[in-house]
Amino acid sequence: MSEHATAVTDRASSRAVVSMRNVSKIFSNGTLALSNMSLDVMRGEFLSLLGPSGCGKSTALRIIAGLGGASSGSIDWPSSKINSRGLPEGDVGFVFQEPTLMPWQTVFGNVYLPLRLKGVSKTAARPQIMETLASVGLADFEKSYPRELSGGMKMRVSIARALVTKPKLLLMDEPFAALDEITRQKLNDDVLRLWHQTGITVIFVTHSVFESAFLSNRIVVMRARPGQVFSDMEISTSTDRDENYRTSEEYRAVTDKVSRALHDAIHAGDAR
Length: 272
Fold this sequence. Notes:
Layout: H1 3-10, E1 16-26, E2 32-42, E3 46-50, H2 57-65, E4 72-76, E5 92-95, H3 107-117, H4 122-135, H5 151-163, E6 169-173, H6 181-198, E7 201-206, H7 209-215, E8 218-222, E9 229-234, H8 243-246, H9 249-271
């Protein structure tokens, strides 16, 4: 049994929000995207999946979300009630690479969508929606339309829509990759604040060493296709992660460690 497989087995499943067990994914064109990937995501973690483009990070995330099936292996939800589709009931929020907002709806209407699908009236949903908009800094924009918002504000709406049902698990698929660096850093700060405030479990897909090192308390580095876990690192810091942390020696040391792991993962994939 590999070192990683042993670590997965040793984790207390009662604390796991979701577990991947020997998950493989073969697409219809024959591409093997994931190969026997096992991973436990523990309650309250901010876990980043890091790896080169095409390594299967987004594929793994979409399988967890139920947006695509595994070719083999299983996804287990040890602490959730499972619905007829094999997914936890109302426990997962998803933030895509693009905001995917409905242009004909206001900010309020876009955030209301998940609650409307659950049969909650707009009147009953209003306090929850306004609380969530305030948490992402958009309390004054409920009547605005997506065309009136900046790229960063649109992504905040997308985050609010994912959080409004108060999920146990938030899945984020490279949500800030298309944004400028200043906006990206500000949203990183906001996501970290929301994580601390809510205690939600986060799986965050990124190909940025710097972003993963700033946000995460655990980083899983994946091999190049077919995707597998190459390195699983706990990340702890002695100080708050803020603007001062970004220029600290501690942050530089973490990014160096993560960079080396990513470099080794890429070359391990080349050697197969």
